Amino acid sequence: MMINDKNSQKIVDIIQNYARKHSLWILAYGTGCGAIEIPPTMTSRYDAERLGVRGAATPRQADVLLITGYLTTKTLKRVIRVYEQMQDPKYVIGFGSCTINGGMYWDSYNTIKALDRYLPVDVFINGCMPRPEAVLAGFAKLQELIQAGKADGARKYKENLEWYRANQKKVIPNWRMPEYNW
Amino acid sequence: MQEILQYTWGALVSFVVAFTVGITYMGLNRKITARVQNRIGPPWYQNFFDVLKLGSKETSIHHGVMQHMGPAFIMVTAVMSLLIIPILNDNRFFPNLNFHGDLVFLLYIMVFGPLGMALGAGQTGNPNSAIGVTRGLSQMVGFEIPWVMALVALMIQYKTTSIVDLMNLQAETGRWLMFTSPFAFLAAVLAMLGMFRYAPFDIVGAPQELASGPMSENGGKYLFVMMSAGSVFAFAKLTLYVDLFMGGANNLIILVVKTFILYLIPMLYGIVSPRYRTEQAIRYFWGWPSLFGLLAILQAVFL
Amino acid sequence: MREKATTLYIGPQHPGITGNMMVRVKVEGDTIVKATTEVGYLHRSFEKLIEKRNWLQSFTLLCRFCVPEPDPVEESYARAVELLEGREVPERAKYIRVLVLELARIASYLLWYGGQSASLGLYTIGQWSVGDRNYILDLFEELTGGRVYHMYIWPGGVRRDLPKGFENKVLKTMDYLEKRLDDYDDLMFDNTIFRKRTQGVGIIDKEKAVEWGVVGPPLRGCGIRSDIRIDDPYEVYNKLDFVVPVEEGGDIWARALVRRQEIRQSIRIIRQVLDNIPAGKYYNKIPNPQKWALPKGDAYTRTEAVRGEVGMYVVSDGGTHPRRAHFRGAAYVHAITLLENLLVGENISDIAAIMNSLGTCPPEIER
Amino acid sequence: MEEIKSTIIQRIKTHFSDATEKEYPYNRVDFSVKKETIPAILFYLKDEMGFKHLSHISCIDWLEENEFEVVFIVWSPTDKIKVFVHTRVDRENPVMDNVDMIWRQANTYEREMREMFGIQFTGLEAPEEFLLEDWEGPPPMRRDFDTEAYATNTYWERPGREDAKDIRETIEKRSGEILPDFAKKYTR
Questions:
Q1: E strands within chain A?
Q2: What is the maximum span of chain C, computed from C-alpha positions, in angstroms?
Q3: Does a structural domain hold residue A178?
Q4: Which of the other chains make 3 or more beta carbon contacts under 8 angstroms with chain C?
Q5: Which residue among A151, A181, B11, B158 is least packed, with the fewest CB closer than 10 Å?
Q6: Domain locations along chain C
Q7: How close D105 comes to chain C (CA, Å)?
């Protein structure tokens, strides 16, 4: 059959990746203070819609989960839930220094310090707060990765689920969530 | 046999044309909205990417059979209306299934989609979906009144229930029905605002309230089917309006021009409007549009 | 027949919520019978962290208290520190502070324009006003080096003098904004649907407003003239000529009208500031911040932000670190007890609009 | 202003014998009372003297003195004056009277104090959790809670930020990204 042919699968992948790359729907979830630079990014001066970036209202429809800044443990629980409700292929962008190394909340008792221990991050954008230009550059980088087929955070998450779960459960003391719900 | 093949071929071609034009219109909508909003906006073909991406997404949720059927119902509605509505005056390239009474049948079939969506959304168990569907159905009750009134007025005035007859009538007299029965046209156009579910009548899936309402549990392929069906249905509705009121079209270019002009009405109105609440929307439709509908019927009966 | 109540979760992941918080509403049909606010998604323990920072280091945390308008927080804290120490501020610095505060007010109101209209489904205004807000952020960037977080108002004055030619740039931006504001009026306040959606929705009782802790534009929307810039004047507001707008009604429409007028008053204040700004020092040097100890005591300062009264209660135990810096945000009252009260009996369609009109800002509640 | 202030002090002192006042410049008057007097004095301030607006409730942990200090700040819109009411609560057994029947919004402040300092308010009706979720440690705003140690123990920290080293060279080595000259110019 043609369909099972490896080369035709490659062609399908290229087409699919091209479409995915140009249509990134970000979930409307302002998890942290970085959410303040999202409206300027989406509106007239920076206009992320040129790149095919637009908002999606629910996790089921979204492709990109933008973690805008620090995550408190209370939010982390919701973010994990939201991430698992999203449908493949899905990408995570860590936004701001706080997602990389805790930023200025390094000694806070309520915020995590490295996002990629708990969720697979495809692209990090540094800065506090990252400027809209940096956000756009982050999206461009994500597009590059998607086109090259390297934005495979979701696969990594599935393969190393136990490791991620162990980390998540370490910081979320009372785990009242379905174990696996996507 | 020849005939069946021709019909099948015609249906396929109509579908492809409707899909392409419908998606392009949605892309143009986004582009024009962006221009009004001081932005460059996405390219006009952006929605093709979106549809392709949605189609290529994986689905790993299951809420029950009806959830899968919901989008299918909408698609079926869209395709069925497309099959019934004549695309061009000359039926050679786009043969369709017209028959006497298809206008009445259309009235029925156009309600079928939202009902299917209601069933599908109900199955997902998301309260947002349920509330969205309730709102959608109540709003439908609103705009169906002027819409039905307008069509009934046409049926009475020209004593026919066939779309092709109405088109032929316009072709013979050379006068568009929007001029000979202006009230019916007004009522129908105002009802169209509700049919398209753009602002101010987009409370059904209002993201700020219901997180996109009936679609909130439907991502990926479901949304792909819904979006395609929506664009096909949009094209079908616009074509119906052109057929009924604007003298149909002799070729595709004229059709596209005419439908796009009609499409501009809900689009531009939507850009500058906040949304009505459900009861406000119903009150709106039962106000002026229904009055126009009533006038149209009076005109049809007494003139 | 009594309908069964459904519970709806507005948030934390919801496009209609203003930031990261949750409102749990019980609805019967479309009417809300009970609303409960749940916060804590943004709790970063600022006040704990400030105890570990010295007096100057605290500023990096302070501006993150409320992201849309960080300057009033810095202002409150700086003023509290000055009160504790008895430090004088040069006249020029006071004017520059007013300039920055009013610019921040305008920027925040422009964001509010977007939020309020988008909550009702009118996205075009938001695109315009948030786009225009960038011009103010540009000014901030030139003045302070940061678009969003400024850390500009410091104890003893401000961190930098005005750059060369800055006044002209501000005036130009103000002229441009004044023109644009008329466009917003055409699309927003002249819009029948906007009027229908906002009039008579989310009414705050005038008699109870002060007791309920309503402050800022929502209080002025009830017909009560109350503004800290006038009642408890700080910096040079008592030397400036401006009007505190008041509207009757107490609904979203009245609050929107108040804000509409206030943004124009802010432009007026900025023009006056630029006319009257004296030359001279902009900063009284503080000692080495590592060794800078403040005398024992406490101070409470209040500043009028767009959301209303924000305050900072600072306690010093005579050391180099604050003993306690407790922030009072307007949203702390607005988004919890007031919102829970207001939402009862309203339509679920109006939740987002009411929240926006109250100016709820979750980071300010949780800190 | 001075007249108003002295009237306020006089009225409060005649009504509440345990109130000790402290005068401040500008529009500020401070009173210190016993914790049992708090509801009465707040009621009096609000209903009789026009201090309608509750501006702030704060709490300070004086670990050395083994006491919590609770401060109520009220504002009179007519007199344009603010009154601070201080009280001290024993740190070992922190119980206070609930005042949310005077101002509804006090409920929120009390919830936060209960969670952050562990002060119990008799008769406070509110959900147990406010800002924290499933918190198991001691009330975090108490002085003896060490947030840095807690954070280090609980949350994984990416190596490399223990000191404030210049990381630009590391970036250059790791990813082969070529740094522009102007970036090299600014060194610590």
A1: 24-27, 53-56, 64-68, 91-95, 123-125
A2: 74
A3: no
A4: A, B, D
A5: A181
A6: 44-366
A7: 6
pLDDT in tens, D124-173: 887 888 888 888 878 888 888 888 888 888 888 777 666 556 666 666 67
Number of domains in chain B: 1
Geometric angle at alpha carbon B286, from B280 and B292, rounded to 5°: 135
C234 interfacial to chain D (CB closer than 8 Å)? no
Chains in contact with D, where contact requires at least 3 CB pairs less than 8 Å apart? A, C
**Residue B61 sits at the chain A interface (C-beta within 8 Å):** yes
Q: A25 lies in a domain? A: yes
Query: Do A87 and B216 make contact, defined as CB atoms within 8 angstroms?
Result: no
Contact residues, chain D, for A74 at CB < 8 Å: 132-133
> What span, in angstroms and rounded, lies between the C-alpha atoms of A18 and A12?
10
ipTM rounded to 2 decimals = 0.85
For the whole model, what pTM was predicted? 0.88
**Dihedral sign, Cα of residue C189, residue C190, residue C193, residue C196:** positive
Tell me phi and psi for residue C255, to 5 degrees.
Answer: -65, -40
User: Is any Cβ of chain A less than 8 angstroms from the Cβ of D127?
Assistant: no
Closest alpha carbon within chain A to C63: A33
Is there a contact between C17 and C352 (Cβ–Cβ < 8 Å)? yes
Mean pLDDT of chain A: 83
Nearest CA of chain C to the CA of A86: how many Å?
13
Q: Which residues of D49-81 are buried (b: 16+ CB within 10 A; e: fewer)?
A: bbbbbbbbbbbbbbeeeebbbbbbbbbbbebeb
Q: How many beta-carbon pairs under 8 angstroms link A with B?
A: 88
- Peptide bond between residue B214 and the one before it cis (omega within 30 degrees of 0): no
Kindly list the residues from chain C whose CB atom is less than 8 angstroms away from the CB atom of residue B39.
Answer: 127, 131
What percent of chain C has pLDDT above 90?
2
Indicate the fold that domain C44-366 takes in CATH.
Cytochrome-c3 Hydrogenase; chain B (1.10.645)
Residue B142 domain boundaries: 2-302
Chain A positions in Cβ-Cβ contact with residue B42 (cut-off 8 Å): 49-50, 52, 54
Residue A124 lies in a domain: yes
D131 neighbourhood in chain C, CB within 8 Å = 39-40, 43, 366
Give the pLDDT band of residue D188 (cuts 50, 70, 90): very low
Q: How distant, in Å, are the alpha carbons of B5, B147, C229, C360, D78 from that of C225?
A: 78, 50, 11, 21, 11
Nearest to C92 by CA among C271, C278, C284, C234: C278
CA distance C201 to C249: 10
* C-alpha to C-alpha distance for C258 and C233, rounded to whole angstroms: 20
- Name the residue of chain C whose CA is nearest to B273's CA: C122
- Look up the CATH number of the domain holding residue A32: 3.40.50.12280
Residue ranges making up the domain that contains A71: 6-171
Flag whether A69 is in a domain.
Answer: yes
Chain A: touching chains (3 or more CB pairs < 8 Å): B, C, D
Q: Does D134 touch chain A (CB under 8 A)?
A: yes
CATH class of the D2-185 domain in this structure:
alpha beta
Do C48 and D147 make contact, defined as CB atoms within 8 angstroms?
yes
Give the count of domains, chain A.
1
C residues 54-113 near A, CB within 8 Å?
60-61, 64, 67-68, 111
Secondary structure (3-state) at C200: coil
Provide the residue-wise pLDDT of chain B in tens; the chain has 303 residues: 777 787 787 778 888 888 898 899 988 988 998 888 888 888 888 888 888 888 888 877 777 777 778 888 888 888 888 888 887 776 666 666 667 777 888 888 888 877 877 887 777 777 788 788 888 888 888 888 888 888 888 888 888 888 877 887 887 887 887 788 888 888 888 888 888 888 788 877 777 777 777 777 777 788 888 888 888 888 888 888 888 888 777 788 888 888 888 888 888 888 888 888 888 888 888 888 888 888 888 888 887
Nearest to C328 among D55, D59, D141 (CB): D55
